[in-house]
Each structure stands twice: as structure tokens, then as C-alpha cells.
Amino acid sequence: MWSGTKEEFFDLYRVASRYLKDTFPHLKIGGYGSCGFYATTREGMNDFYKGFITYFHDFLKMVVSEKLPLDFYSWHIYTNDPAEVLAHGRYVRKTLDEYGLKDTETTLNEWNYGDEGTSHAEKRTMTGASFVAAVMCGLQDEGHTDSAMYYCVSLGGLYNGMHDNVSDTYLKPYHTIKAFNDLYRLGGAVRAEGRGALYSAAAVGDGGAAILISNPTADDITAELCTMGLRREKEVAADYYLLDDEHDMTRVRSEIFRGDDFSAVVTVKAHSVVEIKLTVR
Prior knowledge:
With about 280 residues, the protein is of the alpha+beta class. The chain contains 5 helices and 14 strands. The chain has helices spanning about 5-25, 45-65, 80-100, 125-140, 170-185; strands spanning about 30-35, 70-80, 105-115, 145-150, 165, 170, 190, 200-205, 210-215, 220-225, 235-245, 250-255, 260-270, 270-280. The chain has a 6-stranded antiparallel sheet. A 4-stranded parallel sheet has the order 1-2-3-4. The chain has a two-stranded antiparallel ribbon with strand order 5-6. The radius of gyration is 21 Å and the shape is globular.
């Protein structure tokens, strides 16, 4: 954590960014890990948090006026609302674009469930897991953030919601990351459109597709799932995997269908995640 003045940090960035880019032109140079833009989404924030906004704009003014390298801009957020993560992502992208930095990548390099320093127990439960899945689906859907680094998986860390190092067991949020990797490995992102409080992402690849749906709310939600344009003459198997308090991405339902389109009614329980895998047979 930087403990000097803003001016001292700006001087550091001037010298370091130029030297590093000149010496290692192939490397991406950027920063600075902003501690959040809560004043843009929450009322009544004090001057300390409002100062993060001023800091951001002053930094970008310096970068633009002095033509400093800024290949990426990094920022943090801790919240229990996936929508707030997306709002901050939109704000960062919009602000960078307004300064003419449209090629600067945005990196959410620290995020997790709950306000800073709180909700450590919930990070390890389905409350945290459904939040993690919702954030990843939302970021994938909106496309304004280039990368996001869940914080963290360090041994004994309070923020570690992935793995219990004492019992050597995987925790609920781990399974959401693994499920998102299923989509990533398919290779082709597909637009997932939805309404209401559900978050979703989809992907397609050779021989199949996958859909990830998260309900981070405290209420069960029933929705109709529709896929179009599959153009398959063979049978397609739809396997439903559930992540909740009793299941760790366990298959709980299977269907077979033919044709170009697929429709199904799915009830996504409160604080649960569903992955649907479509496989050509």
C-alpha cells in the first residue's frame, strides 16, 4: 500500500514507466491498483473515498499530458453486489475512453465478496460462490473489463474462499471458477441475454456448448432457457449440474433433444449456480 503523497507517486510513475517501457518495450506497463470508486455508486461517502475519484482523474491527466505509458489500468472492489462491480467496470472503461485511452486495458486485479475486511466466512459459502459466478458472468457479458483476478488463494488467507488448507478440501467458490473454465476451454463466447436478477454466460466449441447461470439473491428464480441456431441433425444431450449447499456441481438432470433450438424451464435456487452442458451424441 502506497504511503507517500500523490505527488511522490506520480513522480515515481513518471520515472519508472518511462524507464521500463524503454528498457522492456515488449512488456505491458501500467497501474496503479486503485482502491475503488465507491463514491460513484454509494451515497454519503466521505472525502477519503471521494479522493479516489480525484486521484484517478489527476493520474490520467498526467499520463495524457506527458504521454506516459499506460498499457493497462488496474483497480479493486469489495462488495456484496455484483451489479456494483459491473458499474465500476463501466465507469473505468468510460473514463479511460474519455481521456483518449481507448487502447488501455482495464484490469480488476483484486475483488471478492463483502466489503473490505468483512464477510470472510461468507466468502467460503454459497453466498460467496454465487457472487463469484455472477461477477464472472457479468464481466463476460458486458465486456468492458479485460481481466479479473479473484483475491485470493493464499495459504491461511482470510480472503481465501477457494480452498480450506486445514482440511485440504475445495470450497464452494472453487467450483464456480472451475465451471467458468469449462466455458473458456470451449473457445467461443456466445451472447447470453437475460432479464431479472440472474447472471449468465455461454460458450460453444467442437461438439458442444455450455451455459453457466448464477442466482446471487436470497430468492428462488424460475426462468425459461432458450438456445437458438444449434443446427444439429444429431441428438444433443443436455446435462444439468448444480452447485448449492448440498451439491458440488453434481449432475441432477439430463435431457435429449433434436433440432436447431432448445428450450427448458430451470429453477435456480437462492444462492446457487447451475451449469448446463450440451453435447452432440
